[in-house]
Amino acid sequence: MASEILTKEELEDVARRALIFQRYFFRRAYGTYYAVWATALSVFFVIPFLVGSAGEFFVLMLQIATGIVATVITVQNFTRVIRANRLWQAFIPRRRRVPYFFFIIAWWVGFILVIYFGFRFSTYAGYTSIYLMLISVVYFLALNLKRSFQDKIPFEGKIAVGSYGLSATASFILSVAFGPSNFVSVPWLLTIACWIFASTSAFRHAHEELLMEGIETLGK
What we know:
The chain is mostly helical. Helix content is about 80%, strand content about 0%. It has one domain. The protein is elongated.
């Protein structure tokens, strides 16, 4: 049986559809990501503000458990998306690979060292270094969105990055001004609210985008 040779136009259409499906998968994955970490941020910053010093040990254990669960869900979520995209990636032009894994490891080592030496110096310096390093997460949020969506980052992604950046910067300034206190939790209410909005928006507009491109099968 002779194999059918696709024309240039047909290949371009396949590549276009591959990119559309990739965007759809990642947009829904980020919808889950925003929802999971909006919940986690509520546990990290809102619950300690409400409980106060009375239940510090309980809150700490809850925060650790929440961080682990949120991380596991995030890894599984994006792993499934990457696997689903392998077929479509065959039709997408390859880009130069960046040693991203080693970059992440180097950042984590730096994160831990800065906080460790901060607490060795003083409790005030330790907490301030935590909020300082949280600002650097903005770069990774933006970088991951860029890697997932290339030059067309969804508007909810921009809102998520912007709100996180504002909250991280404000909490660092408050930690410098007041030291360890409940004041540093207040700016994170902005990120929690924006990430809940970003999650609902990602799920809603992912389907709408498929329909706009004339692709309906995944949306049903």
